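Bit of a strange request maybe. I'm writing a small parser for structure token strings and I need a real example to test against, not something I typed by hand. Could someone generate the tokens for this chain?
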Amino acid sequence: MKITNNFFLLCENFLLDDKQRASLINLYDLIWADEFPVTHLALKFVANVKVHDNKSKENISLSVNIIDSKSKSLFKLTTPPIVIKKNTKEQTAGAVFDMQLVTFPAEGEYTAILSCDEEKIATHKIEVKLTQKSKKGN
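Reply from user aminoacidic:
Good idea to test on real output. This should exercise your parser:
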């Protein structure tokens, strides 16, 4: 079995309509802060993966881990098992990660890592910057 990434995005909100069609609202990769540390109230990562040639697995788990430039984990969230079909050539699986109260200790670049059963599938860079207004005040 092989897992590949279809998409892994950070957005403000995620909605499903009555026909299960997804809407991603306000995609971004830059967070502004007036001071540090800064706590972001809600980050929503949306992930969709393709499962290839599954012969025997009945489920998978997806996880997102946000790390700093020194690979220190700031926040990790894992899905409950996602049911997949055995003996299929190709299928998709996805999840929305609603990460609340994520604290960024300093200005800089952070990385969100998407994994499937502990195997890294994709990354998403997040830049956290001090606002210009705050820089002028120093």
